[in-house]
Structure formats: C-alpha cells, structure tokens
Design brief:
By secondary structure, the protein is an alpha/beta fold. The chain has 20 helices and 27 strands. The strands form seven sheets. It has an eight-stranded parallel barrel with strand order 1-2-5-12-13-14-15-19, surrounded by seven helices. A six-stranded antiparallel sheet has the order 20-21-22-27-24-25. The chain has a four-stranded antiparallel sheet with strand order 6-11-8-7, with no helix packed on it. The protein starts with 5 loop residues before the first helix and ends with a strand.
C-alpha cells in the first residue's frame, strides 16, 4: 500500500486545530496583548455587576429553520431574554464535531466531540456571530463560549497523530504499540477505526510496560465517565511505516483524551488557540471549561494509600492555567465539572472565576424528591466551613443532562465514611423515585431525566406524552421551587433551555443505542426550538429528533403570570433588586421540620429595595410547615419585621423570634427593611 498520501496529509494539516493554534498564537506571542490584563486574581465582582443572570443552551440540540445564529439575532428572541432578566447567553457545542468526518462509532455522539475551531454548518459563520454579538451587547447582554473539550472528537488532529506526524506526537493520551506486540491487539474486521482493548490484551500490554496500571480514577467511588483503552487498525505513515496505537477514549472510542502533561505541550497549545480565538478574536466575555477527563489520570499501584492524595491535581492545574490565560485576554472562565469540593476550592484559588455549584443543585433535587432538606443544609454548611466564597458559584437547577446521585462533591479520600453516607442517600432517593416508576431511568448512580421530567416523576406523572393542564401546572410549580432556591443564592444564577421549555425525554427506542445507559443518555438529548424560529423542522443538524415539551413558545410563556418562565421573570427581578448575587451568608438557622431550609443573608448596602437582611424559608416537604427562628442581634436594631417579597405578607418578631408558615413545596424570601 506504500506510504500515506502526502497530499491528503497536507490537507489534514490545513483542517487541524493544532496547526491553526500555531497561527493564532502569533496574534499574542511577543506582543503587548499578553501583558494588558492582570491574570492571577479572579475578577468576581465585575462579572456579578455585568451579568449576574445567564441562560445556557446547546447549539447541537437547537432546531432552526436556517442557521442558529440567524435565529439568535432576531429582535423577538433578544427581547424575550431581556424581559426574563438575562444578562449573559452561554452557548455549548457550536463547533464542528466528529460527525462531519463520517467516523463510524458504536455510540452516537451528541455534538460535544469537537474537531475544529470552526463553527458547525448549522450554527452559522463568523460574520453571523459578530452580528449576533453586537446586537446582544447593544441590549446589555454578553455572550459566553465553550473551550475545546479535553476529550475531542476524531478529526484532522487525531488522524495526523495516528499517521505518525512528528509534530502531533503527544497531543493525545496515545501510545504506539511495537509490532511484536500486535498479536495482543484486537483484530478490526468492521468499518470502525478503533475498537476497545479487552482485559486479556490489557494485561499483556501492561506486562510489557506499554500501558500503565489501572488509573486512579477507576478506583474512586464517584460516577466519572469511564476512560477505556482503544486500539487502532494498521495505519500507514508518511514514512511508509505501518503503525498501530492504543489511546484513552472518554466514554467511547470517538472521544480521544488530550495529554495535558506531555512535555511537547501540544494539548496546551491547542487549548490556548481556542482561548485566543474565542476571547481575543471573537470577543466573547466568558468561556466554560470541563477538566473531568483529566481527573485521576495518575497510574495506580498496589496497596496505594489514598489519604492526602491529590487525585485531581492535574485537572485542577489545567483549570488554573486556562483561567489565567483567559484573564490575560480580558475574559472570564466558568468551571462546569462535578468535582469534590476540595478540588473546587483549589480550582477557584487563583484559577477559574466561577464554578458550577453541583453540591447545591443535587442536594436541592434530593430534597425535592425525598422531602428531606438535611443533605442540602449540610452541603451549604460544608461550603462555608471549607472557606469557599458562595459568590464564586454558578447556581443552576440541574447542571448536567442527568442527576449524579453518587454525590461527587461529598468525595474525600481521607474520609472513608463518606462512601457509606452517600450510599444511604442514593438508596433513599432511588426508593422514592421507584415508587412513581422512575427507577427505570437510573443507570448505576445516575438518574437520566430532564429537569421537567424529574419534577414530573416526583409528582407521580408517568405519561410524559399526554400531559393535562393540571400536570403542566405541577411541573411549572416544581421547577419554580427549584428555580427560586437557586436564584436566591449569592453568585451567578443560570437557567437552561431545557428548564425554560420544559423539555421532556424522547420516546424510548426512537434512536439506535448500544446499551441501556446509551438509550437513556440519548432519550434526554432531544432537539428543541429555543429561539422560536424552528419552523416545521423536527431534526437538528446532527439528526436528533425534536423532543416533546411541557411548556409552549418561550416568548409567550415569559409574559404569562402562572408559567415557569413568568415566575422566574418575577423572581429574577426581585433577585436583582436585592443584589442577592453580592449577598453574604450570615446564618443557617436550624429548622424544626426536616423538609425546610432557612438561610439568612446580609444584603449589599446599595440594593434598590433598601433592605438589610434577606431570609429564605424553603419547604421541600409535602405538608405546610411552621418554622421559628431568630436573627442575630447584630443584624437588626429594635423591633424588626419580615416582609415576604412575592405576597407582601408581614411577619412581626416576638420575644422568641419570628414564626413563619410556608405551604408545601414552596419557597419564600423575606426581607428586613432598613430603619430609614
């Protein structure tokens, strides 16, 4: 067969991200641009002033009659965002993915297998993005992007690596296998370009010291996406030599993992090119980061002592490096990963500006499912005890497409008992969900439900296809409770398209799948018309069918009094008026009812409501709850009274404090007005 076609290799290099990153680096290297922005200290207060409320959506799941960017530019869409109180729009999966290479794989990819810095055809082009950005900025809305993932797709960079091109060595966690060991590699008889390495082959390659021992992440008691070794077929290089490789794939062979620690720094250069393009050239304000593919990559060894072992050090350092470079160019970074709280703390110290608060969201969903807020109270207390500033968090109803009830935020190698406690929580929530037939949506410790479907399941709604008006109202009320809980917290509040539209799962079996978890994963990734510009289209660019929804057109819903979007519009307006994003947690009073959470915040002095204190009283229980609590004497002067923001109800304080009554599954926020 001779050597690889030089013309084809040259064409691949023109498409490759690593090659493009070299050109992008010349924009910054050796210029004053590298020194214009301070880079070590996160700029938290500035972002909280500019954009305290965000919305996020997945471009790969967005249905549009033309390009997504043309729909985003529409006056009606931007007006809807303004009315909702949105000040930041975060977009994921908007770049070319592995599907354009026709790369056969057993598991369907959902748009996050990025292979290029270029926008996908269905999303639009750079000119359209610039137009959208200008129009959004003019309306007081900034835009956020997503950095190239640490597990890319199989595109030009991957194919150049397996062809042995020198400058691409070290880009991926990939090892060339000596010819004499090919006998231990699986034979590839299908169109697939790589297949998984079985246990016997792994043992043989480990004995030969070609592959390391099992990775540390495999022994951790949290639901990390599995990293498996995959073997390529025989590939001809430019030099005419035949090669076979094994590489780490993130969940499937279609997601090769970047090697952040390789001395060539190829992966770091690729990510750097992404930052320069997004923040420097496209002028987005923020980029989100996921470093979990790097978590626990350390090879293990027999009888390893995990106490004090920094299993997330590589991932945390990568997050810090990315954040500091982004700040040099004037941008912010949001960390999206569901990591243990010690790692979140480490990543935010001189690193990422904000991190998703998985501890709060998962604990709140647990409280909603079980009627028990004890995990939620403990999570909030632990965050304060660890010294993590709540203003550094991004608060969301459901940050992932699934709910991870392995509770990664609780994990600490030095506290073995956490595994037993988290198992108790898992067993409890599984039992509660199973009562309503929701146990079929569990795969291991992950619950694969959209936010609306989760609320529906807890409420005993089994048929997602034929919802009554009463059932739609129940879903709206449940999401409002969870939304109120998250919105009335310090830091950033972020809504998602799934929540605002009430997206529900696709009918089971509509898409081909490899196993039950793959089926569940795809069922909650249906397409949606987030911009109300989808027309009669029922498929996304990557072939995802349109999902059913609990709510109607967003532009209509946001103006309705009892809708979820209408409720969030009022809550966000109150949040902004109080300046909750800048509030300080000063008390977590003990609640009498197990389903109730009480929080006390000291508000910023310049809030427009002239209030000094805000109090959240949130009842996740199924019955009305009465609570009694006192405020610290240093917080109030004389006889203070509480005013409930949404109802206007006033509660006077007695000698034993305040007594408030909260209906079942309801969130209420009270304020203490200043003396003047």
């Amino acid at each position: 067969m001779g050597r690889a076609n030089p013309g084809y290799v040259q064409w691949l290099e023109k498409q490759a991200m690593l090659n493009a990153s070299e050109k992008l680096s010349t924009v910054v290297s050796g210029t004053n641009l590298f020194w214009l922005g301070p880079y070590e200290k996160p700029r938290v207060d500035m972002m909280l002033k500019i954009a305290p409320v965000w919305v996020t959506f997945d471009a790969a799941r967005t249905i549009s009659a033309s390009s997504v960017l043309l729909a985003l530019q529409s006056d009606s869409y931007l007006r809807t965002m303004q009315e909702l109180g949105i000040r930041g729009i975060h977009i994921t999966s908007m770049r070319e993915n592995g599907v354009i290479w026709g790369s056969p794989t057993e598991q369907r990819q959902l748009g996050d297998d990025t292979v290029s810095y270029n926008f996908s055809k269905g999303f639009g082009n750079e000119k359209g993005f610039n137009t959208f950005l200008r129009k959004a900025n003019k309306q007081g809305i900034i835009v956020g992007d997503t950095v190239i993932p640490f597990a890319t797709g199989r595109g030009a960079d991957y194919f150049l690596t397996v062809r042995g091109v020198e400058s691409y060595k070290g880009l991926y966690c990939m090892v060339e296998v000596p010819r004499e060991l090919w006998k231990h590699l699986p034979e590839i008889t299908t169109r697939a370009r790589a297949v998984s390495v079985d246990e016997n082959s792994l043992k043989a390659l480990r004995r030969a010291r070609v592959l390391p021992p099992p990775l540390v992440r495999e022994s951790l008691d949290i639901s990390l996406t599995p990293l498996n070794w995959y073997a390529t077929d025989v590939v001809k290089g430019l030099d005419g030599n035949s090669r076979r490789f094994v590489y780490l794939g993130y969940g499937s062979e279609a997601r090769p993992v970047l090697n952040w620690s390789d001395p060539s720094k190829a992966a770091q250069r690729l990510i750097s090119g992404s930052l320069i393009q997004e923040i420097g050239l496209l002028h987005v304000a923020m980029t989100s980061v996921r470093v979990s593919p790097l978590y626990g990559l350390e090879p293990s060894y027999p009888n390893a002592d995990m106490s004090g072992f920094g299993v997330g050090d590589t991932a945390v350092q990568a997050a810090r490096d990315i954040a500091q470079e982004a700040r040099r160019y004037g941008g912010w970074t949001f960390l999206e990963d569901n990591l243990p709280l010690p790692d979140i703390k480490a990543a935010t110290e001189g690193g990422v500006d904000f991190a998703l608060n998985h501890a709060l969201s998962t604990s709140a969903q647990y409280a909603y499912a079980t009627g028990d807020a004890s995990l939620l109270r403990q999570s909030l207390y632990t965050i304060l005890q660890m010294g993590i500033d709540p203003k550094r968090f991004i608060n969301r109803i459901q940050p992932e497409s699934y709910i991870d009830f392995s509770f990664p935020f609780m994990f600490n190698p030095e506290q073995k008992r956490n595994s037993a406690i988290s198992k108790q929580y898992l067993d409890t929530v599984r039992e509660k969900i199973a009562v309503n037939g929701g146990d079929v949506f569990f795969a291991g410790k992950k619950l694969y439900l959209t936010p609306a479907a989760f609320v529906a399941t807890v409420q005993g709604i089994r048929n997602f296809r034929n919802l009554t008006e009463e059932q739609r109202h129940l879903i709206s009320s449940g999401l409002t409770l969870l939304g109120h809980t998250q919105a009335m917290q310090p830091g950033i509040f972020m809504l998602s398209a799934d929540e605002l539209l009430g997206v529900l799962p696709l009918p089971a079996g509509l898409l081909d799948y490899t196993d039950e978890e793959d089926a569940l994963r795809q069922n909650i990734a249906g397409g949606y018309d987030f911009t109300s510009r989808g027309g009669s289209n029922i498929l996304t660019e990557i072939g995802l069918p349109k999902a059913p929804t609990a709510f109607d057109d967003l532009g209509t819903e946001v103006r309705m009094v009892e809708s979820f979007a209408g409720n969030m519009r009022r809550i966000i307006k109150l949040r902004n008026a109080l300046g909750i994003q800048d509030a300080r947690v000063v008390q977590l009073p003990k609640a009498k009812n197990k389903g109730v959470l009480v929080q006390v915040f000291q508000l910023p002095k310049d809030n427009s409501m002239k209030a000094t204190i805000a109090v959240n009283v949130i009842n996740f229980g199924e019955h009305t709850a009465t609570e009694e609590f006192s405020l610290l004497k240093t917080l109030t002067s004389g006889e203070a009274s509480l005013e409930e923001l949404l109802t206007g109800e006033t509660v006077s304080g007695g000698k034993d404090g305040f007594i408030v009554t909260v209906p079942a599954r309801t969130a209420q926020t009270y304020v203490v007005r200043s003396a003047e």
